[in-house]
Amino acid sequence: MSTRKLVSASFANLLIPISGLLVSPFLSRELGPDGRGLYAALTLPIVVCGWIGTYGLQDALSYHLRTGRLSRRTAAKVSLVASVPLGLLGIGLLAVLGRFVFPGGDGHYGQFLLLSLLAPLHILANLLIGALTGASDIRGVNLVKVVPALLRTALVVFACLTLDLGAYWAGLLFVASVSGGLVLGLVRLRSAPERVDSPGEGTGDPPEPPDGTIPARSLLAYSLTCLPGVLAAISSARLDQIVGLPVIGARELGYYAVAVSVAEIPMVIATAARTVLMGRPGSDDRRRGSAVARLAVLASTVASGVLAAIAGVAVPWVFGAAFAPAVVPTVILCAATTLYTSMVIFSAVLLSNGRAAWSSGALVAGSVLGIVLLFLLAPMGAVGAAIASLAGYGVSVVAAGAMVRRVPELPSLRELTVPYREDLRSFGGLAAGFVGRFRRRATADPGPADPGRADSGRAGASLADPAGPPGPATSLRWSVGTLAHRIDIGTFGTGLLFVLAWLRLMVPMLIQLFDSGRPEFNSRQDLVPPVSDLLGNALSLAFILVAAVLAAHGGYRHRPARLWSLAAVLAPFVAIEAAGLLNHQRPGLVSLALPLAAVAIWLQPVRREVLGVIGILGAATATGSILLALVRPDLALISGTAAGDKSGLLGGLLAGPFLHSNVLGIALALSIPFVFCVGHPLIRRGGLVVLLFALFWTGSRSSQLAVAAVLFTYLLIRLFPTRIWMLWTMMTAGVAAVVFVPLLTTDPEAFTRRGRIWHTLLDQWAEHPLLGYGPRYFQREPDLAVELGGEFTHAHNAMVQFLVVGGLVTTAVVALLLVLTWRRSMALATAGFPAAALFLVAFLYVSWLEASHVPTTLAGHATWLPLMVIARLGLPAGGAPPAPAGADRGGRSRAGAAGWLNGTAGALQQRLTKGSPQKTTVSRM
């Protein structure tokens, strides 16, 4: 249980620096360098006041609750009452400090005074954290810490995106966000039941019954004893940065601040371990009770070692090449973090056992040495400051360790720092528990299994089940076997094709982006590095090999059914390549990729849930693009003439690894319908939010319109599941836009100069109306840019694109394929699976102004692969009748992980034939 608490508290504490990393880029770009510095000056003193302003009462509350001298309700009363005088004292001290920080008459001092009025809230928050720590309420501590961080992130980012935010208002949002955690902390502290244990054992003092009496003298004495340690700990953590400006200079302080922001990430483990140790009852077994400390030291050492190893590459890449001198301080501070973890653990053990004075002495000794060395090593700049911190932590560790050894009843230093074998087993058991929980959720719908397997339901058993696999190796084999029975080869192989096609598109673009920078949009200059071509060809070959293996396996195991439908899927690729051959354009090996994939998908039974892979890949694209924009906005954003008259967030439009924001918008719009196929609610909803946010940032109006049509269609399906004619209406409107808009547009400047593109290309097509010009028309026509009015690589309309590259033949067979998939998607929507119809809505509403998503190479996988799967769904494999959508191969009824398989194809056909008025249920998506 202690290990679980350590992991929970560590993840909760980790959200706080993550919140800072998310907010910092938005604030920096919104406020500028001067405003960002003013924001820090307005807020940092208030945060520090919240720590110092408890004057040790936070640790005193932890100790008294742990030893039974206070009840939870009494601790809540003490926190509320004490926050008033402590808050007033903090406001007074901040008012004095403000005179030195803001000496000018520019009004900043008045703003600082107003923000200082909220300092009592931060003091109260830390008092509640201390009380909840003593009550061993890790979840309550997490709530008080995490809720303000999440609230702060949401409010500040939203304000940066929508308002003209200043430093004062940003500081007000930051300071006031702590109120969210206060409410939850007070409610939890007063409402949770009291812990029943044997407090006071081993402390030397008899416990007092928690009858509501406040031991004021004991609280005051313990607080004053803890106060030097509190001041020393805060000075070690923050004073070096506060006094660093006049000591080492602004540039070296900047390097040191970057090093601290990286190296302090593992410190969340030490903070979590301190919370757990301070809340453990004194009657626990000594060796068992110190397991958290040992695991925290191990995890901190490993995490610091990893950060030190990658610092040489990660620091310049994340913060820019100008911060390369911060690498050495980062490595030194990573070593200091391991000492810091041991120091915090030794201090927590002393505090929780009534040795507050000893803890304070150790912390003060290290803090004094660190500050002295900071001045002595100032000529070394950031490196000297890092060495000073390392030495200060080292002295504190040695002093605190020596004091721990002086108390026989306390755990030994070996018990606090070196893991035992059972510790590693318990940590492995915790990981196995998480794996077992995930597998139980994953195997709630066992899926297709062998008809003869009577124990297929066993796949959902827990790893901890005594009847299950006894060891890790057996567990791994058992998990692989479960996965093999759960996912058929056709579904797995199709999902693998999705992933390989996505990697073929993303990996070369990312390599080119980081190697050569963002190229000019639609530039003909070849900036692709050789390694990018090499990896791209390797991924294309992998895609072809997987498709060939799937096709061979499917041809061997299954008898092809309805070859005319397969012919309809293959016809567009054949027609376009035939047009290319007639126009002297040689096809490449990659031209085989999508036709071979069509054959492979047709010969394999594919489950509809595989479409969720596209949604997950789309969410990954959106997340990666957003993170790239926050870390390297020069690579991920476009602005100026490339952005046109559109303005985006953070000074540009989000393009991610793509050449233009419109291309990224199309990729996201085509992925959003399949997010609804993801079974896990958290992943489904989180992916949808990330996709919508990234799409908004792209500024791609055609893609935004397509997604609006998708969401409106989904709402109609959910509200009126039997009114299928509404779905027909939405799709018919999309078809009309694709066909009639380019034909009826006469203004050359209409739709951002698309009118000129359409008029020119339709005139060109009139000269070769039957077969067109082949797939490489836009790359092989040197004079086309002059006629179109710019360098364009596609027709900006799907119908015009197919007419130009493949003529009437290609356009007709593409229309036949769309009719086929339209019928399939309507049947699936009637059966409760509307994702296929939503994809066609997105495809049609994107295609009336764009055509970059319809090339017949792997660059068009987001269009063609879903169409292949939709055309295949519902057809029998091997000539057998369609299997019920709500049953596995053994004929057993199942609800489905996503809740969609609640009807059968046979039942659907019967209902359509009989015209039953029974209401069809559209499942949750």
Automatic annotation (TrEMBL):
Domain annotation O-antigen ligase-related: ranges: 687-814
UniProt keywords, alphabetically: Cell membrane, Ligase, Membrane, Transmembrane, Transmembrane helix
Bilayer topology term: Multi-pass membrane protein
Record flagged with keyword Metal-binding: no
One Pfam family matching this protein: Wzy_C
Region (Disordered): 442-471
Key word Disulfide bond present: no
GO molecular function list: ligase activity
Segments crossing the lipid bilayer: 38-57, 78-102, 108-129, 141-161, 167-187, 295-320, 326-351, 358-377, 383-404, 495-514, 534-556, 563-582, 588-603, 610-631, 663-683, 689-717, 724-744, 798-820, 827-848
Cell location: Cell membrane
UniProt cross-references to PANTHER family, sorted A to Z: O-ANTIGEN TRANSPORTER-RELATED (PTHR30250:SF11), PST FAMILY PREDICTED COLANIC ACID TRANSPORTER (PTHR30250)
Name of the protein described by the UniProt record: O-antigen ligase family protein
Species assigned in the record: Plantactinospora alkalitolerans
